[in-house]
Amino acid sequence: MEDNIISEEEAAQYDRQIRLWGLDAQKRLRGSRVLLVGLRGLGAEVAKNLILAGVKGLTLLDHEQVTEESRRAQFLIPVDADGQNQAQASLERAQLLNPMVEVKVDTDAVESKLDDFFFRFDAVCLTRCSKDLMVRVDQLCASRNIKVFCGDVYGYHGYMFSDLGQEHHYVEEKPKVVKGSNEANDGPEAKKRKVDPNETTMVKKTISFCSLKEALEVDWTNEKAKSSLKRTPADYFLLQVLLKFRTDKGRDPQPDSFAEDSQLLLQIRDDVLETMGLSSELLPNTFVSYCFSEMAPVCAVVGGVLGQEIVKALSQRDAPHRNFFFFDGLKGSGVVDYFGSK
Description:
The chain is α/β, with parallel strands linked by helices. The chain folds into three domains: 8-165 and 295-337, Rossmann fold (3-Layer(aba) Sandwich), CATH 3.40.50; 168-204, no CATH class; 216-289, no CATH class. It is 37% helix and 20% strand. The protein contains twelve helices and ten strands. The chain has helices at residues 8-13, 15-21, 23-30, 41-53, 86-97, 115-118, 131-142, 212-216, 223-227, 234-249, 258-275, 296-315, and strands at 33-37, 57-61, 102-106, 123-127, 147-154, 157-163, 168-178, 194-207, 324-328, 333-337. The strands form two sheets. The chain has an eight-stranded mixed sheet, with helices on both faces. α7 links the parallel β4 and β5.
């Protein structure tokens, strides 16, 4: 990461953030370059959050064209941009959010990119990508200590995943602990360690992450995995089904083919859970009614969490989620779970 100096203009622009997480954290963020793949609704939310936070550079990569459906939840694309490239159509409004951030566009398909392309960035965020591509990029970036994030929104549901490597270092602000008095007449209570609510200290911590491959290929016949099954949200299995649909069909479920795609989703659900040695009852049939297209409110929630996690990882400030965040818009709640042996 580049040695970065905050100018007076930047200090004024990021004054609130510097007060919130400190100058050093803002410097690390200001020296970071991020690749964002996929400029649909979720990608637009992530782009907005990263640009406003003040990363050094953001590359928007998307090879697809704007359609009426693709811009329904995408506020960066003008209404008259149908037929244009999604990343290119998002550039002007994205840059206007913060002229201090260098926003670039790449209209290539991410699948065509060679390994070295990903090594230019400090973090890579993948949306609307296949399972195989996400696993490939995660493994590539792990070899160079590049942070990887994945996410998608399917109707009322959304998720994010993060892999910050085997050793992610960060600092966390904690209330300062002070020793009790040693005076004899103070009694035993006075000698106990106490928390001073008026003083804080910065504590350095290290945390490890499992890979995306490990997280998606859990052996559910393992006793440890079996014991965590009840705590595993149904959205984890929904994600497996939707990623398999994307692999098989080369697209996501479409509203205009609801009847056909619903039947296929149910069949994939049965096949995926049977392969895992699990009951199809883990994912009730009703899921097919709530996983079509992107919904703007869900994009806002998941994009907010995803953007925040990227900012925390790059600034090395505060504890990150490890590894999954699932959002169920029907319940209005998010769930964080950790998979893997690390």
